[in-house]
Amino acid sequence: MDEIVIDGGGKLQGRVKISGAKNSALPILAATLLTEETSVIENVPHLRDVHTMVKILRSLGVKVRMATDRIEVSPGKFNKCVAPYKLVSTMRASICVLGPLLAHLGRAQISLPGGCVIGPRPIDLHIKGIEALGADVKIEHGYIVARSKQLVGSDIYLGGHFGPSVLATATTMMAATLAKGKTVIESCACEPELIDLAEFLRKMGARIKGVGSPRVEVDGVERLKGAHHTITPDRIEAGTYMVAAAITRGDVEVEGCRFDHLTAVIDRLQQAGVKITKCANGLRVRAPGKLRPVDVTTLSYPGFPTDMQAQMMMLMSVTEGISVITEKVFPDRFLHVSELNRMGSHIFLEGSSAIVHGVKRLSGAPVMASDLRASAALILAGLVAEGRTDVSRVYHLDRGYERIEDKLRALGAKIKRVKK
Ligand code: EPZ
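ok -> structure tokens follow
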């Protein structure tokens, strides 16, 4: 199992190119199942989760050709509808195939995703969405078994206890594209990845309005065709490098990211004293002066993203003063706290808030990654800690960051991957 070893210290300098968005690529690859025709997806990041989605497509009998950052998917007359536990248990986003399989084949059998370290991840809203379109849904032997001769458009309220759901919005929207008649979905998530998915669906011939707002309208069509699409840049990867620049007091150009997708992150960083300016093809991030503690509350988009919570906490843990980080989307998403405290942070949990007492310095230590974004925070900690940090279980990191050690080394970090 690989580990990443970092010798802390040193300012990050230079340019880093942002990859395509993982959370866009996964639902878009699943959406290719809505047609028999071939689709071509460009700017696809090389990530473990993308490989898992490709394995699921191939296990359904779909032909998939991968080349650098381009994937060609040719469903043809595939007729398998089972997404097996073996694959789904490694990646919750496998549920993205539920809507397309049901809409295209009239049946879908998806393993229930099972537990997740960032907290309870129910799928009731996904089921609510497809049941409202007339699907018959049962949970049998650990699988969601959904059937429908013909989905029918309907008015659906998709609001959840913790706000809107990104992938439940995707599931319902994708299923509605081939339903008879009009579907109106209220309380949708508004994430940029859903706008990217809808753009792809429209290229396939879907009739969708309002994505990016809480109310989405879909007029069902008979069939969809193959399409060509380029994935939007990964705003969470971009946010992570922005924090890396700030935490090392560096000067980094984050190339290819979208300013408009990062407004909440930019707002918090600027409040903390980080200098962020637009440049030709992205953002320039510098932190010459002393930073200030800021409070952060995670919310659904356009609020502060939960996927940036751990990284922002890391920055606040080495910023003198007290800041409060409140997690409103996944209230238990704090597995990074104990590992950061092992490196000398002073972070205390109070319900779904973390009280962060900024410290002057961290010391390097062996630490263990628990989930994707927690592992990113540990890498950031290693960049500023005194001495050596060994981050184990980096397979979590590889799920969502393409060649992170190469990109950081190119910015001047003393970082390498070692095989254990
Ligand atoms: C997406 O997950 C992202 N994953 C997550 O990113 C991200 O953290 C999350 O959205 C929130 O932004 C992908 O896009 C592949 P949700 P998703 O449904 O759609 C509750 C990363 O690090 N809920 O929007 O699964 C849920 O428990 C990953 O890249 C229900 O109650 O998240 C949570 O509290 C981690 N019932 C809230 O809604 C449901 O049926 C929002 O979750 C579904 C969700």
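The radius of gyration is 21 Å.
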